[in-house]
Amino acid sequence: MSIADNLLKYKNEIESQGIKLVAVSKNHPAEAVMEAYEAGQRVFGENLVQEMVDKQTQLPADIEWHLIGHLQTNKVKYIAPFVKLIESVDSLKLLKEIDKQAAKHQRIIDCLLQIYIADEESKFGLGFDEAIELLRSEEFAAMKNVRIVGLMGIATNTAQEKQTIAEFNELKVLFDGIKVSFFRNVEYFKEISMGMSSDYKLAIAEGSTMVRIGSNIFGKRVIKHWKNKE
Question: SS3 of 70, please?
Fold first, then answer.
């Protein structure tokens, strides 16, 4: 099946439920993104800053770019002019840098707090207590150019279905608690980004508003040495 065929299968299934589909285009060329764009997709996720910047310069301006991979503070300046959503905010230090760079471009950048829910040491993310501490901090209260619009989490890669469901449920419970405690009177805190190709149906059942699908749309990745450029 073509990229367009694969994409439309997911768009029809996921978007009919009111869920946002993020097409994860990392390690795929701009031409592949364009094929998905021409099939109606506008939201794309990238893991690496250099790759996102390169594609953004080649592709239509109305694409909504999401940074979904671990973000280093010294790379924020490269995506600050255009990124729509940074899904992987995992420290107060990073959020402060995003606020600083967004101010330079007179923008407010939407962000998700990445929460550590997996039983894997390799995953990034804030602990539950750390997320609450961040939201209570004076530093966060002083920020004018970032907006926390929800939470993101990645389930354990090799987990049994029962464990995956439990991890997604933990994120939803935390989201509900943070919503009541910190964002009760705002509409924009509404996103829970969880679920990928292997577990998106479980994620949607547990309250996900945004799922990230990559290889099942674009096929096997062609690995390039983007990290060498970073």
Answer: coil
